[in-house]
Amino acid sequence: MFESAQFVPIGNTPVMLQAIAANGRPVGEPIHHTIGRCGILEVKECGRDQQYHITFYPNVSIEHVKALYASYQSVIAGLEHRINSEG
Question: Superkingdom of the source (predicted)?
């Protein structure tokens, strides 16, 4: 699991959405989709007033890990530059 401070479009990523009851327990069957090549997914099966637990990468491949790592290279480069300029 990871959190991102910016949009990281990693296309062709499997995702699972599970409806969650007020007591935190799963409700019904999970919804499985794959995020499109552009990194955006519109899910029409979800209800407006329903909370969902979203799991990215339920089936992780080497390509997914490489794409995630590559998506952070600009952030890492900026931090490296900042650290080096302050040293």
Answer: Bacteria
